[in-house]
Amino acid sequence: MKASFFRNLAASLLLFLAGGAFAQSGAVTISGMVKNKADKTALPFVQVALKQERDSAFVSGTITDEEGRFSLAPVKEGNYVLVFSSFGYKPVKKALYVGTLTDFLDISVVELEEEVQSLDEVVIKGQLEEVSDKLDKKVFTVENNISQSGGSILQAMQNLPGVTVQDGKVQLRGNDKVSILIDGKQTAITGFGDQYGLDNIPASAIERIEIINNPSSKYDANGNAGIINIIMKKNKQEGFSGKVGLNGGLGALWIKKANLPAIRPQYQYTPKINPTLSLSYRKNKLNLFFQGDYLYTQTLNKNEFVTRVYDDGTIIDQQTKRNRNTHFANAKIGFDYAFNDKNSLTVSGLYGMEKIIDHGDEPFFNRDSSQRIRLWQFLEDELKTTVMATASYQHKFPQAGHLLNIGFNYTFHRENEKYFFDNIYPTYTGHDAFKLLSDEQVADFNLDYTKPLKYGRLEAGAKLRNRSIPTNMQFYPGLNSPLDTNAGGWANYKELIPAIYGNYIIDLKKIEAEVGLRAEYVRINYLVNPDHSTYKSDGYNYLQPFPTVRFAYKINSKNKLSLFYNRRVDRPNEVDIRIFPKYDDAEIIKVGNPGLRPQFTNSLELGYKSNLSKGYLYAALYGKAIDGTITRISSSVPGSTLIYAIFQNAGKSYRTGVELTYSADLAKWYTMNVNGNVYYNQINAFSVENKYPQANTFSADKQRIYSGNFKLNNTFRFSKSVDFQLIAIYLAPDIIPQGKIYSRFSLDAGLKKRIQKGKGEIFINATDLLNTMVIKKRVQGDGFYYTSSDYYETQVVRIGYNYKF
User: What is the side-by-side strand order in the sheet with 582-585?
Assistant: First the structure.
């Protein structure tokens, strides 16, 4: 890393903001075995008692089984004494410290003898996988996000601390290189190694969201910003149970900015409808579960006003208006079966259907809007279908927490997209169209092993992924069409990734440490039509190590320091290298780049957690150095006004920052969560060659900026059954490829009332109450620059009802 990187990292310490987070809590299972010291045989029916160290108060107890094994759960963090006693043997006491690093603790073998003998003290520690202890994960329960109830996952995420949303993508600490998982697995619904579709998945299907800023080696190495793990609902009550809900809403309650002349109206009073149903039946060894959701929305998806200025003095005003209709259906069904208390099997299937219809208008006028130069109208018809089958087997060894998990996941995902364009000029009208069909098939095999140790645990495993994406593009040009018919044809993306990992965790009274290493081999082949006008078949392979390290020091029972290091990678996704041009608007064409290569990131973070009497304070100082930065570059070629946006590796970039979080119950009726993130973002100067549609070179000077975001979450408890939530969000200006995005602000609110003895609830909420969320940008290209303001739909009012049975 360069010296400037460390200077920027140090400078970030001077920045101050406050922040808030939410955490879950759990408990530890303690296990071991009791033997006769003389002949080493197992001792059954030995009494095991757990007592408080300070006053010998009884906490819990059990007896050993016929194999001499015992298990105690749940046990909270603290200092204890374990007492072992049996007729004919002298009692044995062992000091026990339960910490915060693992869910299972194994004290190994305790030996009893008839003679009195002094035994050494044993110190044992364990951890709950939660934000407040390990500092690497934040856990959010979706139903507690009142202001976004009834919306999509993407909308629910934008209120979470440390999370922002830009151009339909989730960002962690201002970085969109986020790996999205569902139930711990990558799926085609959210993207393999990428993210998409989150705005069309209803939040009603989700139980909680886990944000992992510093993933261990157990996770795939992809995603330098971190991982977001979406946990879907799954009832676990004995017998028959479930939940049913219905919510609806209206968006675009008034027009933020009127259309340019003579185009179709923009959507207003857009409806939102979301019924949901979850069912479960659990009896003896079998648990059956079902989760079904449907989401229908109309949305003013885009309403962007652009002023484009060319070097020759030409000034063009344009508007891009996109009215969107979306249908999303999701169904998950499966079962858990316990063969016995040691072996279990889970089998599930998921079906997802997403239908999107876009009606768009894009007029082009001269500077004073006295003359319409061109009108571009379009219809986009997209159908995405996903089928996923999952099977997982778990074997529990006699020792509690000693596990072997084997999993297989198969996904089929089809994209069927049709685009129709009318190019309306004063002298003629052209009708153009193209069709894209892509079938993605992914097979994943996982093997994970966990072994509790006396002072921690050992994790190891392996994964194999085989993925293929054949794609076909057909062009249907009309009169004077700008479509490049020679750029059509077929392409086939093939990916093979075997990986192994190992983690060692040690947990002492004052020190915690976790050291892991993941080794991944990646082979990518991208085969293209030999007749393609620009690109040829390409690919790459590598074998790379991805180490992770965490070291923590417990200052005392309420304060902890943690230091994280990891190395991660962002591999280009298939759409990033896809050779077929796609219109972002009438004069901006997005094209992939088969020559794109992965970017590698080294990350360092120092975290501090202080438990307060009625809350906590969390702080993190972080830095990332990125080599081979992936970004989209926009350029034009002589004689054409079209702008080509193509992904490139733009060299080195750096990001350093500080995140602060404060959460407190300030009164019985009021809880406040404040989160702030300030960072320094730098992209070094670079020069790249865009090959499409003809070779041209683009160069950019160094870009740098201080940016950040601030969120204030207020929850008011008006009574035992009524909660009110008010959330304020401020996003500071930031740099984007070749330009800058300006500040944004919004205010969200929600009210929830529990009824029917807590089994039912009704809610009403509103997003962007003041209608202030407008996306403003400035982009500098080669031979032009443009400024834009997007007045898309952000204000939505929803009302809903849920009932548990």
Answer: 582-585, 588-591, 643-649, 630-635
- Residue 794 in 3-state DSSP? coil
* Residues β-bridged to residue 661: 618, 675
Report the amino acid identity of residue 722: V
Contact 761, 801 (CB under 8 A): yes
Under 8 Å between Cβ of 611 and 130: no
User: For 156-180, how does the pLDDT look when each residue is reduced to its tens digit (9 = 90+)?
Assistant: 777 777 788 777 778 888 788 888 8
In a domain, 379, yes or no: yes
- 576 is a domain residue: yes
Which tokens in the block code for residue 560?
């902890």
Give the pLDDT band of residue 730 (cuts 50, 70, 90).
very high
Q: Which domain holds residue 405?
A: 239-804
Q: Are 386 and 339 in contact (CB under 8 A)?
A: no
CATH number of the CATH domain containing 34: 2.60.40.10
Question: 102 CB contacts (<8 Å, ≥6 apart)?
Answer: 28, 126, 127, 401, 452, 456, 457, 505, 507
468 with 493: CB under 8 angstroms? Answer: yes
Predicted structure pTM score = 0.78
Q: Where are the beta strands (DSSP E) in 691-790?
A: 696-700, 703-717, 722-731, 734-736, 739-741, 744-755, 760-767, 775-780, 784-790
Which of 112, 130, 150 terminates a domain? The answer is: 112
Determine whether 533 is exposed, middle or buried from the number of CB atoms within 10 Å of its CB (0-12, 13-18, 19+).
middle
- pLDDT, tens digit (0-9, with 9 covering 90-100), for 254-301: 899 999 998 999 999 999 999 999 899 988 889 999 989 999 999 999
Residue 176 lies in a domain: no
Give me the CATH number covering residue 520. Answer: 2.40.170.20
User: Domain tally for the chain?
Assistant: 2
Residues ≥6 apart with Cβ < 8 Å to 386: 187, 188, 189, 350, 351, 352, 353, 411, 412, 413, 414
Average pLDDT over residues 395-405: 90
Q: Tell me whether residue 183 is in a domain.
A: no
Q: Which of 112, 135, 161 is the last residue of a domain?
A: 112
Same domain, 243 and 108: no
Give the span between the Cα atoms of 404 and 390, in whole angstroms.
Answer: 17
